[in-house]
Amino acid sequence: IYIIVCCVKNKNKMVLKFVIDEHLLPIVMLVFGWAWTVLYFNFHDMYPRYQLLYLPFFVFTVCFAINFILYKKNIRDVLFVLLLIIYLFGSYGYFYKGIPTGPSDLERSLEYRNYMRLQIDTVKEIEQKYLNYTIGAPMPFAEIINFPELAHLKKAPQDVFVYGFNARLKGYREFNGLENENILNTIWVAYEYEKNPKYPGYPYGEKDKILKQIRYGDFEVVLFMGGFGIELMRKFYMIYYNEIKENKKKFKG
């Protein structure tokens, strides 16, 4: 569109020379924007953190195109105001369906602020009542609660393990079954969005004892004792992965 408009406006001039002389910065932004799009052609399926790399080029080129094509300043101003209003609503997640289903989805908008405040409230609850307990938590809360610097704790709980994920750092461990834990001295942390109708009772259910429900905005954390649903899920995946290993052995054989 930009090149076509230049051709129409400058019939008697060398369009390429005019474009380079008059609009070098937009050309650079366009080239880098195109290069990024080609490099990450599947960016619609990528996490929002990677799409942020593209936004400066996209916003600049869109604003430049509107300013270049529209002649009347009043129309441009109204259009920019409308775009700002649309992006304002979008920044709070109003254009997305449902609530985020994990930390990665929270990158899409300012919804992550409610998630962070919920984590702060959860950390305070653990610090006040459960520092002497073993804490079982999903990612990334297991890492947050294990490192006082991240969680703004004076000290970490005496023992922390992660369930549903591998332990990636030193200082905490993986959940290896209820038979290896003291159930009466273990506090479980679960997010409401982990609940799935396909897996009733996971991560918490009727057999578990709910100690505290902490809510901030659309997000909720549940502190409970038991972990029976998590144990059942662990055994299910152990059987599943063992079957995969056996099938691989048969296939190689």
Largest sheet, described in full? 6 strands, mixed
Query: What's the helix-strand series?
Result: HHHHHHHEHHEEEEEH
Q: From the alpha-carbon coordinates, what is the Rg to the nearest angstrom?
A: 26 Å
Q: What is the count of β-strands? A: 6
Rounded average pLDDT: 81
User: What characteristic shape results from the CA principal axes?
Assistant: elongated
Please give the alpha-carbon distance between the first and last residues: 59 Å
Describe the protein's architecture and organization.
The chain has 253 residues and is of the alpha/beta class. The chain has 10 helices and 6 strands. It has a 6-stranded mixed beta sheet with strand order 3-2-1-4-6-5. Helix 3 (24-39) crosses helix 5 (55-69).
Question: What brief labels describe this structure?
Answer:
253 residues; alpha/beta; six-stranded mixed β-sheet; 49% helix; 12% strand
Set down the secondary structure blueprint:
Elements: H1 2-9, H2 15-22, H3 24-39, H4 48-51, H5 55-69, H6 73-91, H7 112-129, E1 134-137, H8 141-146, H9 148-151, E2 159-162, E3 173-174, E4 186-191, E5 209-216, E6 219-225, H10 228-252
Parallel strand pairs: 1-2, 1-4, 2-3
Antiparallel strand pairs: 4-6, 5-6
Helix pairs in contact: 3-5
Short description:
The chain has 253 residues and is α/β, with parallel strands linked by helices.
